[in-house]
Design a protein that fits this description.
By secondary structure, the protein is α/β, with parallel strands linked by helices. Helices cover about 40% and strands about 15% of the residues. It contains eight helices and eight strands, in the order E-H-E-H-E-H-E-H-E-H-E-H-E-H-E-H. The longest helix is centred in the first third of the chain and has 17 residues, at about 15-30. It is elongated. GO terms for molecular function: lyase activity; metal ion binding.
Length: about 230
Amino acid sequence: MTRALVVCAHGTDNPQGQAVVRSIVAQVARRRPDLTVREAYVDVQQPELPQVVNELAAHHDSVVVVPLLLSSGFHTEVDVAQAVAAHPHAHAAPALGPHALLAKVLVDRLVDAGATLDASVVLAVAGSSRAAGATDAERMRELLAERWAGTVALGYLSARQPSVADAVRVVAAEHGGDPSEVVVASYLIGPGFFHDRLGGLGARVSAPLGDDPRLAELVLRRFEGVFEGVDS
């Protein structure tokens, strides 16, 4: 059986963000040389997801799209779903998050930013108008809170409230209104438009998840979960 794995990212015009995605895709390919591994995007960059799925479906027994996205939302429910719908042997895996592995990466990024485990944190998520996206974001906050001694609040960069800025203000109020006592956990894959918006809040900001090997591991867990019929 010939199998293909499509790592589908959102897309960005930030060169560093593009490099992060390419690195994750390369890690996946190195770990699984038995698979055809390709990258695809739902916005901004090429190649577009439908094109990649169509090409692979013509020459492989199965094609699995793993969204390199951190929660459910429009892109998973519409873009990815439509791309695989035309091919009976094409399948969509769930988004990467929420997942305990991502919480562990977030903890490492916070510590790298100089945060102590009792620091107050705002988890900054991209946001989605879809209900499933909000559910995923709250679950991710819970997973981080299970591994963090300090307060963990949730803030959105788009689509929902509270905004990250409002969440920082609320949490800072617990520290006399000083935002420098708050650390923003960047729950984003890589640098780009959303991460840039986290500057200027007066709070420390952790680096995005980046090309940590645990993301490649999670991509492969999602891929195998399609065949095992489980949410891995």
